[in-house]
Amino acid sequence: MNLDHVPQRETGMTAYEMMLSESQERMLLVAEKGREQEVFDVFTKWGLDASIVGTVIAEPRLRVLHRGELEADIPNQSLTDDAPRYCRPVGTWKAPVPLDPPAEVLEELKKPRDYTADLKKLLTSSNICGKRWVYEQYDSMVQTNTVEGPGGEAGVMRIKGTNRGLAMALDSNSRWCYLDPKQGAKLAVAEAARKVACTGATPVAATNCLNFGNPEKPEIMAQLSEAIDGIAEACRALGTPITGGNVSLYNETKGEGIYPTPVIGVVGILEDVTKAVPADLQRVGDDVLLLIFQANHDEPSHASSLLQQFGSSEFAGTILGTMWGVPPGLSLKDEANLHRCLAELADSRLLHSARDVSDGGVFLSVAEAGFLKNIGFEGSNSSTPDPASGDYAKVIWGDLTSTVVVSCAPENTSAVLQVASKHGATGLYPVGKTVSDVFRVGSQIDTTIADLKQSWSQSLESTLHDNSANEVFA
How far is 82 from 223, CA to CA, in rounded Å? Predict the structure, then answer.
């Protein structure tokens, strides 16, 4: 490598500075000799700079030249297999929460509830509320390649000059990772991939940002180690190898570490971008269906009760103000089957929309799907327990895995159910129809889509405004 040819931001940089500085937005490519101009032409097309800085040689060594001097001559193995490794002590992590809910929570769940009020409060949760106030401050339509913009399940970009598209999504759930770092990380990979699959794309690769506390503490190192194991297991099962990533460690306040928060990004490929499925309801009169792919969980320890899993839900944290239990179970085999099912449904143009069911449960996901075009929903609670039994909240507000809610023309419902059954769906439920104005589920939830949207869309901005007004500066 000849550093004389490396583009530099400042004059007089040393070889040491150029080789070890963490430059942003720079990529190193290896191209076939004789085709350099083709590479330069691509860079020129997009208004970017490129230069030849070195040559691949037959020897397993890295040589660095600068101003006619040999600055470094290093065996490749010294930079790879022989590189030093941290050997941090790995302890154990057990979340300091009970497996079963406190007695007062059980009593609360048995009381009559205003489920409309619960839905509105969930929609204002910081994990669920609309984020438009943030993402609309940035241009999401650069070079007119955007097919599905922010606010849905996954962004979809067309690849100009082809029929193909790319779908991208990010996901993380720190509550689940706090309760069980390995299971929580697996669930994050699965949900990010599921959001991509909802568009009809096939998930093909992943990246990550690992946010943890102080790894010098053995219990925090255990969180990090277990999360990495979970990510690896899920990525292997779903065919999404990690292509890169970064870490953010030592995140503490007064010695207390943050919840372990591995953020997973997944990208998928759509062979025909015109078949991309939106996340939002598209028209009145469609059937709304629930497709569930949950057979046998991979982890025997997560064959837990519905009530124990409910303790990790957004409802438990936001409405009940507490947390207990374990994250939801997950079958990676079923998850992969769901992805294949969604790809076939999209390719056959059978769906008008598809949305992941996760935080907040089924009917909250349906409500979110109606906000963009102000489309309501008329549902039935005939397949849910009697509200007086205490199980109603767990069923309709429980955070689910490997589950999607889709809409389609009534004449396509039987075909959608047939495809889902072929791919191994364990539950297929027509849950209602799209309508104008109202949002109604049996006799338990009765409001309008406009009322729900107002709670959801204004929460983030009003919260940030209130907090800003209360700041005191010295």
Answer: 26
Considering Cα of 187, then 190, then 193, then 195, what sign does the dihedral take? negative
The enclosing domain of 251 has a CATH number of 3.30.1330.10
Q: Which residues are CB-contacts of 104 (< 8 A; sequence separation ≥ 6)?
A: none
What gap in Å lies between CA 53 and CA 5, rounded to an integer?
Answer: 5
Q: Is the dihedral of CA 5, 8, 13, 15 positive or negative?
A: negative
Average pLDDT over residues 136-151: 82
Q: Give CA–CA dist 115/121, Å, rounded.
A: 10
Q: Which residues contact 169 (CB under 8 A, 6 or more apart)?
A: 153, 154, 155, 192, 193, 195, 196, 265, 266
Choosing from 79, 113, 132, the residue where a domain stops is 79
Please state the pTM of the whole predicted model.
Answer: 0.86
Tokens 């401050």 correspond to: 137
Domain count, the chain: 2
**Tokens coding 389:** 């039994």
pLDDT in tens, 112-121: 889 999 999 9
DSSP code for 387: G
| Residue 9 within a domain | yes
**Confidence label for 294 from pLDDT (cuts 50, 70 and 90):** confident
Contact 191, 399 (CB under 8 A): no
